[in-house]
Amino acid sequence: MLVDDSAIIRGFMRRWIEQDGRIELVKVCADGAQAVAEASVCSPDVIILDIEMPNMDGLAALPQLRKLVPGARVVMASTLTSAGAAQTVKALALGAADYIAKPQTSQIGGVDSYRVDLLNKIVALGERAGGWSRPLAEYRLRDRPVIARKPAALVIASSTGGPSALPAFLAPIASRITQPILMVQHMPASFAPLLAEKLEQAIGKTCREAVHGEVIGSGAVLLAPGDQHMRIIKGKAGAVVQLDRGEPVNSCRPAADPLFETATAAFGGRVLGVVLTGMGHDGRAGASNIVSAGGRVIVQDEASSVVWGMPGAVAQAGYAEAVLPLRDLGQLALRVMNGEAA
What we know:
With 342 residues, the chain is of the alpha/beta class. It has helices spanning 7-18, 32-42, 58-68, 82-93, 112-128, 162-170, 192-203, 256-266, 284-292, 310-316, 326-337; strands at residues 2-3, 28-29, 46-50, 73-78, 98-101, 153-158, 181-185, 208-209, 221-223, 229-235, 238-244, 271-275, 296-300, 322-324. The longest helix is centred in the middle third of the chain and has 17 residues, at 112-128. The N and C termini lie far apart (47 Å).
């Protein structure tokens, strides 16, 4: 189901979707009220929902749509303005599965990357929506160490579904972890400060965007800024944050692999890597670095992930020693960070 008040944007999106043989467009709506009226009739697996619309906007429609079609995955179509970012982060907290940043109307015809991103999100989320029954992916767990080294840092990667998964994972455990917690969530620059604020409220511990050149203190909880890679180097005073706008890695900036790889070097392999829900395979190469250096990697399971791309890639490559739902994953992470043996 496509919900947007702009006839121009509806037209482009409709054409893109109808040209993709993987997707069936079941309804096009001009506002939230119409979407609410039609949702239970057409029963969509995925809803692309504009935020700013007359009559009923996306934020007002979202809880009603989730109640009417609880199996549907909702993607919020957002602007990259500060207001759009705030509304999108709020929508993610209300249960939206993901978001997509809308290009300017004058540019939409030439934004091929936006078209590809839109279609890939619909397909990935559609495969997990509507209660589809399919075999779970196979993987082999890595052997846990007989004698465990206490990690010096916890590094976390997430993407689609991450803004909800991160607080659920960290809230029960963050206050009991004294080592730094370093996170990469795929999102634009205007979104990251709001996510850090939401995380701080959820975990009861200071959480903020990382700053270039800062020494990472004990107990710090740092989020990579949007549109910047976060790397860690070993300085005279300890581990230091390095931010850059280098080329995207795995089509992402920030990306998890640069954080995982450099944190492994900076902390001498004493790293616990956690990969949560997300599309793609970002984090897989970094996970390989972590385990090769003697660190440990655990990932979110398929059943609890919005999309099992990133954690699945790590598990299927044989780098994960545990594949668990969020709460269990958090409790294991806490035990590992506290230095308990395998």
